Structures are given as structure tokens and as C-alpha cells.
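Structure, all two chains, one model.
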Amino acid sequence: MKKNNEMLSAAEIREKRLGVLYKILPVISVLLLVALWLAASSSGTGFPSPIQVWDRTVQLFVKPVKKLSLIGHVGVSLRRIGLALLFDWTFGIAFGVLIGWFPRAKAFFGPLFNAFRAIPPLAWIPLITLWFGIGEFPKVLIVIFGSLASIVVNVQAGMSNVEKMYLDVGTVFNATPRQRLLKIAFPSALDAIFAGVRTSTSAAWMVVLAAEMLGANAGVGFLISRGMDSLDMPLVLTGMVAIGVVGAILAIVTQFAERMICPWTRRKKSY
Amino acid sequence: MDEKKKVILRLENICQSYVVQNGVKDAVENVSLEIYDNEFLVILGPGHCGKTVLMNMIAGLEKPVGGKIFLDGEEIHGSDRRIGMVFQSMNLMPWRTVMGNVEFGLELAGVKKAERRAVAQKYIDLVGLTGFENSYPHELSGGMKQRVGIARAYTNNPQILLMDEPFGALDAQTRYAMEEEVLRIWEQEKRTIIFVTNNIEEAVYLADRIVLLSNCPATVKQVYDLSGLPKPRNMTDPAFLKIRSEVSANTDLAL
């Protein structure tokens, strides 16, 4: 009995050590990056040091660019991807279900969709500018073009790979076609749909910055191009750090939402 | 045969074959069977002969290329609410809780929530899963998952329950326990059960009658009436072992 307890505590110690290790590792990597950054900026190449970037970030709050602080610019960018994602997650999911579940729809839309998603979003900029000018709508449109494909592809994959064994249960219980779609196929595709939500979010965040670097007067992408034009490298790096931080937060938020909505995916095992 | 027994399901010259790479493969050939109300019928056959195919045709998951199926005297085409199924791979929906899985059939049938919850709870209790209503399938052991499968089939109140090698994926100990369970449940809630297995011991332990199928293509080789052997049966009883070796000697080897 006593021996058993010792075994248990040894296992606990191992568990704790592992836990500490996994908490320390990311901290070490960030510290290493800062150290490398310091070393690179001390050689006098004009590359700003972390301290300069920090000062510039603080200054951005004291003296806003175009009347917006850093938070304001992040907000403008987030609003753009928010509108685009709203469209992605409604129309995109519906379209993915359509071509994933109905073979005829896939045969009809498939080739067009494949051609559409091969065109990089930035290639649309000339046409969109010609049609819609340089307001808010064309920017949102470019983000949509850049992120729609990733959700449609994921939803389509999930809907066309529904396990036959789930559908068999529906057949035995005399499910109607509508019930097969809504009660079996769609929920079984939810994890694939969430993969689409995650990839479309990160794709949108990438595309919005590119879109903003080409003619905008607010947003994080604008901050970077502004920094480039005025040789304000600390401002460029402030923008880059903001992009990284916000991108990471978005990834965490979508992952958290998935866990809330699909509790069964938390621990995947054979059923 | 007892004349008073009522035939509930009749298979008439059922055939099934598939187009494969080099020609046509016959899976089931000319199977005719009469299944009586409330009996425990075991279909026993070697390896990959047409046992599951036969089940799938009765359940309406595939259409036979020839032959007819009569339920209660009338011919059926495709799936029927009066026939339920317990799957070998359990087929639980991972996104639904135990309760969600068990009430699924009634939900599809449009039964109101309070009512279907009550029925589902009755069968969850019957299979011994009280307290696990809100667990997800991945949190359950293999034996518990198949209990959910059995409760789900019962909840829709079918006249006939098809069980397609339901314990094939379980380890030996769990399997013995589940065989006892399924007999206990059957004694409490009498239904016609058609149970498919390739395990001779399991067949002799459970069956009122055993239908022995031949190797591919599956035909009915022999029918054994085991009603003279009282249940619950003892697997080491001489009478049990005698029938067991008799069936065993007559079973084709699966290659």
C-alpha cells in the first residue's frame, strides 16, 4: 500500500515537472526573440531596438495618427474583417453545404469555384477599385475574396465525407432528406466547419492588412505603409507586433468558441 | 414446430450480388426464412459470408437483387419503423450525449421532447446506464457504448430488433457480460430479436433457434431448434457442449 503511494507521488512529480516545462518553454522562446532583436538592432543598421518600438507604441497613444490610436487602427481593421467574416460564415457555409452535400450542385459550381479560388485576392484590387472606388466596401470585398474559399473548401469537405454509419442510423429510423441533412450530415461536419472558421479568420486578417497597405487612411496595414513612406521603422514594427498579437488572440478566441460549441471534439478517440 | 407460433417476418428467396472488378460476386443466394414473434433467432455463419448483407436488407439499408421480405404478412420495401437495428460498429453520434443518441429515433419521428425523454430514460435505465445521460460517447467504454446502441434501438419500440455482431468489437469478458445483459433485457422487454454472430458459443448461449449459413454465397445450411435447452444456459453444461460441437462440426471454415 505504501509502495503504491510512493509510485503515485513519483507520477505526480513527473506530471508537475512536465507542466512547469510546458509553461516555461514559450517564455524562453519569446525572451530569445527579444535577445536576438536587441543584438540585431545594436549593430547600427538603422533597425530599431525593442525599446524604440515600445516608445513609438506609447507615443502612438499620445499623438494619434489620423486621429486614431493603435487600438483605434486595430479596431478599424477588425471591423473590416468582421464584416467580411459575417458574410463568409453565412453565405460561405451555406454554399459549402450546397456543393458538399448535393452532387449536382458540385458538378455545376465546382469548376467555377475552383477557378475563383485560384485567383489571389490582390489580383482583384484593380477591378474592384475600378468598380467600387476606394471606400470601405471594396476593402471588405477584397477580404471576402481572400477568405471565402478557405471556409467553403472546409465545409464542403466535411459535408461530402459524412460517415456512412451515421447515415445508416438515419435510414433505419426512416429519416427524411431534410433530417439527414440537418440532424446527421451538418452536425457531423461541425468540426470541419470550425476548421474553416479558424482558417478563414486568419486568412481574413492577412488579406485585410494587404488591402490596407494599398490606399487606406486607417487600419494596421495603413500604419505600416505610413511608417514605410515616412521612414518611421519603429512605427512599422509596432504595426507588425500588433498584427502578431491580434492574430494570436483571434486564433485563441476561435479555438475557445469551438470548444464551447463542440464539446465532443475536446478529446478525440475511436467511437 | 409449434403450430401456434406466429410468423412475424418472412424472407422469400432473398438473393444479393455485387458487381466487382472481375465479374459478379454472389453474397446471398436464395435464403428463405420464417421468423416467429418474440423469438430469439441467431444467424450463425463463418467469416465474411452474407450475414451482415442479410441484416442490411432486412433493415432496408440495401435492396436485394431478388426475393421478397414480408413483415406481418405485407411486403416491405426499404426501411420500416417496426424494425430496429443495433450496429456492430455501434454508430453512436459523437456530437450527441447518451440521452441525445437514445432519443434520436423518436426525435426524427417528431415525438415531443418531454415524451421522448421519458421513453428514452426508461431504456437508459433498462440497459443500466442511469447517471450517464449527459456523457458523450467518447467518455464511455466499449460495453457501455453498445448499451447505448441497444437502448437507442429499443426506444423506437420496434417489433423486430436486428443485432449485427453487436459484441464483435468487445473484449471477451465484456462480451460474456453483455450476452447475459441482452438476455435479461429480452426477458423484460420481449421483442423478436435477430442476432448475427460468427461465434458458435455465443449463438448456442443466446438462441431459441440457430440458422446456420454456409460459406459464400450464403445459403441456409441448417436450422437448429434449441428451445429444449432452458435459459439461462451454462456454457459448461454437457447438453450445451453437445449442441455446440454439433453445430461446430457442421460449420464451414472461413478462408
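Chain A touches chain B at residues 165-166, 168-176, 179, 183-184, 187-188, 190, 262-264, 267-269, 271 (CB under 8 Å).
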